[in-house]
């Protein structure tokens, strides 16, 4: 699992995850990903377009990030999950916790909104 | 191509890589829908992880037996362990409609398997937990 910084400005942080978000994948990126939610926290896009697989450990990490950002008054959303990953996220009700969107411009607009 | 796979897995998370590879190799070439393959991997990883992390009350080495079998239109998965008695079907169902402030971050592994699999059954026999999970081969 790889974490890429796509963009990081005063307005937002756009991170992309690549690979499998299973136990091993989470261990590889967890500390770095969480640091983005605590140090100079910004409204955050987590791009899942290159994530092929997600387990409950991965979902747990996403929820932890969202909680940390919420505590800092910041929004988080997920962008473009692949079909099976998206179905898993929705069956676990993550759309009730934060937005899951499929278009970058929509993502930016949602992060700008209240 | 074999219709059965049996693995003896030690109760260490580092075993998951070997398990995933063996399951992948077994499923390769089977007439299996991509979503079913995905579900099988998730179910096995979630249930074995759960057993390794929470199933034992000591630090000793234990063996978990994983078997897969193609039976008609389904893949039958059996996970057998000698951990303390635990019926995942009785585990608390998380509130998945909660907003982020109230959302628990854990407790979803078992729920994921219960939602994704076609059938899941538990029994306790001769001091062992036996979990049977069924996933159909084709698209739902």
Provide a descriptive summary of the structure in words.
The complex is a heterodimer of chains A (114) and B (140). Chain A is of the alpha/beta class. Chain A has one domain: 2-Layer Sandwich (Transcription Regulator spoIIAA). In chain A, 44% of the residues lie in helices and 29% in strands. Chain A has helices at 23-38, 56-71, 83-91, 104-112, and strands at residues 2-8, 13-21, 44-54, 76-79, 100-101. In chain A, helix 3 (83-91) links the parallel strand 4 and strand 5 (100-101). The longest helix of chain A has 16 residues, at 23-38. Chain A is globular and about 30 Å long. By secondary structure, chain B is of the alpha+beta class. Chain B has one domain (4-136): Histidine kinase-like ATPase, C-terminal domain (Heat Shock Protein 90, 2-Layer Sandwich). Chain B contains 3 helices and 5 strands, in the order βααββαββ. Chain B has helices at residues 16-27, 34-54, 109-116; strands at 4-10, 63-71, 74-81, 119-125, 128-136. Chain B has a 5-stranded antiparallel sheet with strand order 1-2-3-5-4, covered by helices on one side. In chain B, a hairpin with a 2-residue loop joins strand 4 (119-125) and strand 5. In chain B, helix 1 (16-27) packs antiparallel against helix 2 (34-54) and helix 2 packs antiparallel against helix 3 (109-116). Chain B is globular and about 45 Å long. The two termini of chain B are 24 Å apart. The chains are: A alpha/beta (114), B alpha+beta (140). The interface between A and B is medium-sized, with 23 and 26 residues.
Name the features.
heterodimer; A: 114 residues; alpha/beta; Transcription Regulator spoIIAA; 5-stranded mixed sheet; 5 strands; B: 140 residues; alpha+beta; Heat Shock Protein 90; 5-stranded antiparallel sheet; globular
